[in-house]
Design the sequence.
């Protein structure tokens, strides 16, 4: 009999009767909610892909370099057809179907019904080239071979544009590829004709592809214009004879493919990493205010304190440790946790402790193995057809990747962690690991995603050890592999050959020099360090128990004292009662004695009694009655006496009890005081042994400014022991590598091939290779733009730790690829600093958002990754960010970058006074300004205190560029050079000074001015260095997120009230500009015009002595006036004006 034969057969309804109705309803509701959530996710993901797709790629500007050339074809012939110089050998990328961007933008707005917005001149919109294209052909070095891969070489914007226009584009890729193959066949036939054997790919081929693409699209973007094609030729060999592997940025941008992959996974219900959690709307669900004392107590529980920490000189502050503890606890099984990091609050310091924790936990796993080799299993050819070793799968959970939209943020973390300054000198020898490799990586220039951007000069730094490396784009990955495989020449041999050997930075050479370390000793040292931390934690817990016991005993002693005092009052009252009753008793005794006498005297004789009884004598009767009255009164006196005696006994009893209570109260109080003293003595002994302990109770009672500077439940001894655990964990890593040399070297070799793009292992093998590489280099970094290519083979959830820095600058769709590959993400940033740079017109974005029906908070141009992560983090607080309170994830509070007035300006503008200035900043600034002869520190006052240089609005110049204001800024820049304030600050001898403006035209105008006067302000400095400085140090606010300089010139610009209102309308722009300055801020602008804005007035208007005239500033400039006469013409003394803007 078949199973369930007694049940109806046929469709699934056969089982309905077996399921309780309530369960069915709950199951259906849960499935509906799940489906609804997936549908919402897909709407957002598809909208975000639309944004990326319709952001058309730019063609390169014309260039004629020795290794790379860019030719714009306007005359109907490709460069090799016209005989133009091209690199040889080279690969040639021919962009066809050229579309003028202005025409495309207008057509796109027309399709969507989007109005053209006024350019705010703010620098937030990313620069794009004037031309875009439909596709790319790849022509080989012999100019005869041509490749076309539709998925990689066709621009998606054209397809999405045509779909918006209502065209049917199904089969577009396949049909165009078929056409390409047909064109190749025709070209091959032509070459078989005599005399045509060497015919190259020509412009006729390119035109045919462009025409066919436009035809197949049906409603293509507006192709046409003077430029028919753009040819990018990239040499295969550089000038030094080294092989190059030329590539172009992805045709469809850096994010399109990952968004498509996320859409596909979400549609199928396949694993998608952290994407679903990132997109959920968790606003307001179970939020806990982390600034409440009970939340701090819970977060700082010693059980949550990591056993290891970064061996810095000082421990974290209170809210840094709260963020670390709570973040680690909430991310233990995966997820997203956000940290709000206002400027200068120690984000990198916090990240270093997270890194230390992960390193310690991996060392804990390593220590489980009796021998390092036992952690690996030999496998066959599963790693891209090469043999390797599979480490224990648990090692996959420790790979750390730092990511950001900001090249500078990624570089900062990668450079700071291995810098020797990050480790106290006494610890460096113990921490040292592969220092030659670390130094070579630390001191190389990193390649930015922007092909035109030149990296800032790198100041040589000493590295303490190999802890982090920047990967990301192909250039950085290639450089990383080159450093780890580096070779060097040796003296020629007898036969004249020049053999090469492993260079000092070559990791395989260093592995060979590492030798065989004592694995058992490394494990023992690590476990001993862990045990010491556990012991010290137990002692601190005991210290807290004793402090609490002392507090309880003090409270109970106080209560006992109250009882004692009450008992004394009762005893005194009882004594007074006894004394009063004794008087009453004496009186009653006298009354009774008198009554006894009266009875005796009034007693009638026998005859009188007889006569009274017989009622024979009235006198006898009266005498008898009188006697009886006296007897009655005597009875009353006796009763009163007895009552007095009883009261006396009761009073005596109460007195005895009160005196006993007094004695007991005194004894209790004394005992409790002894107990409190003993508890304090024990606590003091523990604290003395620890070098001082900050207990949590007294910390939370401190004024806010002091409370946040401390770390409760910590001690000097515990800080040192936790740092020792990290040091010993590094030793375990070294011994582990040396103990599994064969396995590790083999996997490392494969991992470098994977990173360099030489092999593409299967996802599982890729995870094992990354896990192996992470043992050597615990932290990798990448921009979001390069993430998909760098970690192409990593499956969903494969990266153990994703740390996102400057998340407030990331548009919401750019992290999707990283989140898809991550198991857990720590998101660090600040929604009140610079907003993300956007690539698409905001009105077009709004229309695309409406078209897909995505969640309102997911609009690309109106939010950031930080906002979404904060929104879903239930552990945080509200801050007074601008016009309304903003919920942020676990906030950092102590600011250590800026001195006054920059700190207070930022704190007022953006954080509602929520930040606290770090201890010692005023004194540190005083020593720098006045000098410190005892330590041979010369005075460095710069141009005097920070100030606002008040200059009337200058109506000259384009946009918001004001020539007179720019002249003042240029004079300040020159003054830094004249006075030698640039010496030692930067390797290029140029000032550690930023000139920042809210407006692009103001920044561009000053850049042009300084470039044209290079000999005036930077004599003797090479043009290339000056140009690099101008690009890096003069710009809009969006250029400087994550950076800092000794001084900042804030060139306000703003010719119209509307422009000023925009710049000051939110805290972001001014907050970032002001907090780039560590020591001095020189604001150049029209005081009255800007003081009309409440935010500016409240933050800067009341600073004593801040407003200064241009004449006063000129007086402090030593030589600038004679060389900049226009400064004198344009910046006459400003009339006195009051705060409201009226003239006096």
Sequence:
């Amino acid at each position: 009999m078949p199973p369930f034969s007694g049940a109806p057969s046929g469709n699934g309804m056969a089982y309905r009767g077996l399921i309780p109705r309530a369960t069915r309803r709950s199951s259906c509701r849960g499935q509906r909610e799940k489906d609804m959530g997936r549908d919402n996710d897909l709407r957002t993901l598809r909208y975000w892909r639309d944004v990326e797709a319709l952001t058309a790629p730019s063609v390169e500007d014309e260039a004629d370099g020795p290794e790379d050339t860019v030719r714009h074809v306007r005359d109907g012939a490709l460069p090799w057809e016209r005989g133009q110089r091209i690199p040889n050998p080279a690969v040639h990328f021919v962009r066809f179907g050229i579309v003028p961007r202005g025409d495309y933008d207008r057509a796109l707005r027309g399709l969507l019904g989007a109005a053209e917005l006024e350019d705010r001149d703010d620098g937030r919109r990313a620069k794009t080239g004037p031309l875009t294209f439909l596709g790319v052909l790849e022509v080989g070095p012999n100019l005869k071979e041509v490749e076309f891969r539709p998925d990689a070489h066709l621009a998606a914007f054209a397809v999405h544009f045509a779909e918006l226009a209502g065209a049917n584009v199904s089969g577009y890729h396949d049909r165009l590829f078929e056409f390409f193959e047909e064109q190749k066949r025709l070209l091959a036939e032509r070459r078989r004709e005599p005399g045509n054997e060497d015919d190259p790919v020509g412009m006729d081929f390119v035109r045919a592809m462009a025409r066919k693409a436009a035809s197949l699209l049906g409603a293509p973007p507006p192709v046409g214009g003077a430029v028919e094609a753009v040819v990018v030729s990239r040499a295969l060999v550089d000038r030094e004879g080294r092989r190059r592997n030329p590539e172009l940025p992805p045709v469809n941008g850096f994010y399109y493919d990952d968004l498509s992959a996320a859409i596909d996974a979400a549609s199928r219900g396949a694993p998608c990493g952290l994407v679903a959690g990132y997109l959920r709307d968790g606003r307001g669900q179970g939020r806990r205010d982390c600034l409440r004392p009970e939340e701090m107590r819970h977060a700082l529980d010693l059980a949550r304190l990591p056993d290891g920490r970064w061996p810095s000189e000082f421990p974290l502050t209170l809210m840094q440790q709260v963020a670390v503890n709570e973040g680690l606890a909430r991310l233990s099984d995966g997820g997203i946790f956000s940290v709000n990091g206002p400027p200068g609050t120690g984000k990198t310091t916090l990240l270093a402790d997270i890194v230390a924790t992960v390193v310690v936990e991996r060392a804990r796993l390593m220590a489980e193995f009796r021998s390092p080799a036992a952690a690996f299993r030999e496998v066959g050819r599963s790693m891209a057809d090469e043999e390797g070793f599979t480490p224990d799968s648990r090692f996959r959970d420790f790979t750390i990747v730092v990511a950001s939209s900001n090249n500078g943020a990624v570089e900062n973390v990668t450079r700071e962690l291995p810098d020797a300054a990050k480790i106290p000198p006494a610890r460096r020898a113990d921490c040292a690991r592969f220092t030659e490799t670390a130094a070579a990586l630390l001191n190389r220039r990193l390649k930015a995603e922007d092909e035109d951007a030149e990296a800032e000069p790198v100041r040589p730094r000493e590295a303490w050890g190999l802890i982090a490396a920047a990967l990301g784009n192909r250039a950085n990955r290639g450089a990383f592999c080159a450093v780890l495989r580096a070779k060097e020449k040796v003296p020629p041999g007898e036969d004249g050959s020049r053999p090469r050997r492993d260079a000092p930075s070559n990791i395989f050479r260093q592995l060979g020099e590492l030798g065989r370390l004592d694995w058992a000793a490394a494990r023992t040292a690590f476990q001993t360090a862990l045990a010491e931390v556990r012991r010290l934690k137990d002692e601190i817990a005991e210290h807290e128990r004793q402090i609490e016991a002392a507090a309880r005993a003090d409270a109970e002693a106080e209560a006992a004292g109250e009882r004692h005092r009450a008992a004394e009052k009762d005893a005194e009252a009882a004594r007074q009662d006894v004394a009063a009753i004794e008087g009453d008793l004496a009186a009653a005794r006298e009354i009774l004695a008198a009554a006894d006498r009266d009875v005796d005297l009034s007693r009638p004789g026998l005859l009188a009694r007889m006569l009274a009884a017989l009622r024979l004598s009235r006198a006898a009767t009266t005498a008898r009655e009188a006697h009886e009255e006296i007897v009655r009164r005597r009875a009353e006196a006796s009763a009163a006496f007895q009552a007095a005696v009883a009261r006396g006994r009761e009073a005596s009893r109460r007195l005895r009890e009160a005196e006993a209570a007094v004695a007991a109260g005194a004894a209790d109080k004394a005992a409790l005081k002894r107990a409190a003293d003993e508890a304090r003595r024990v606590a003091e002994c523990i604290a003395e042994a620890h070098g001082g302990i900050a207990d949590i109770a007294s910390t939370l009672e401190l004024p806010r400014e002091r409370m946040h500077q401390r770390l409760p439940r910590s001690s000097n001894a515990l800080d040192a022991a936790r740092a020792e655990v990290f040091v010993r964990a590094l030793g375990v890593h070294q011994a582990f590598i040396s103990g599994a040399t064969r396995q590790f070297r083999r996997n490392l070799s494969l991992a470098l091939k994977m990173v360099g793009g030489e092999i593409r292992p299967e996802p599982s093998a890729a995870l094992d290779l990354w896990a192996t590489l992470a043992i050597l280099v615990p932290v990798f970094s990448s921009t979001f733009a390069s993430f998909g290519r760098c970690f192409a083979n990593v499956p969903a959830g494969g990266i153990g730790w994703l740390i996102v820095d400057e998340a407030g600058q990331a548009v919401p769709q750019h992290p999707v690829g990283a989140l898809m590959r991550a198991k857990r993400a720590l998101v660090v940033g600040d929604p009140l600093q610079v907003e993300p740079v956007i690539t698409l017109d905001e009105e077009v974005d709004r229309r695309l958002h409406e078209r897909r029906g995505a969640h309102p908070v997911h609009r690309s141009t109106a939010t950031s990754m930080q906002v979404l992560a904060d929104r879903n983090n239930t552990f945080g607080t509200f801050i007074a960010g601008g016009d309304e309170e903003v919920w942020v994830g676990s906030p950092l509070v102590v600011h250590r970058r800026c001195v006054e007035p920059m700190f207070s300006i930022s704190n007022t503008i953006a954080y509602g006074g929520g930040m606290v200035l770090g201890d010692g900043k005023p004194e540190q600034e005083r020593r720098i300004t006045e000098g410190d002869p005892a330590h041979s520190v010369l005075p460095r006052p710069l141009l005097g205190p920070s100030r606002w240089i008040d200059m009337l609005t200058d109506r000259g110049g384009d946009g918001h560029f004001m020539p007179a204001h720019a002249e003042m800024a240029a004079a300040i820049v020159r003054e830094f050079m004249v006075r030698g304030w640039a010496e030692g600050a930067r390797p290029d001898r140029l000032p550690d000074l930023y000139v920042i403006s809210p407006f692009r035209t103001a920044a561009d105008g000053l850049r042009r001015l300084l470039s044209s006067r290079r000999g005036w302000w930077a004599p003797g400095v090479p043009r290339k260095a000056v140009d690099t400085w101008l690009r890096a140090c003069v710009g809009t606010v969006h250029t400087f997120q994550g950076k800092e300089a000794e001084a900042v010139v804030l060139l306000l610009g703003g010719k119209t009230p509307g422009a000023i209102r925009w710049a000051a309308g939110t805290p972001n722009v001014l907050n970032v500009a002001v907090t780039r300055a560590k020591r001095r801020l020189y604001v150049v602008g029209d005081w009255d015009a800007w003081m009309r804005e409440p935010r500016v007035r409240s933050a800067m208007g009341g600073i004593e002595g801040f407003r200064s005239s241009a004449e006063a500033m000129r007086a402090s400039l030593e030589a600038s006036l004679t060389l900049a006469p226009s400064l004198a013409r344009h910046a006459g003394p400003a009339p006195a004006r009051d705060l409201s803007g009226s003239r006096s």
In short: Residues 1-24, 450-454, 1119-1144 have pLDDT under 50 and may be disordered.
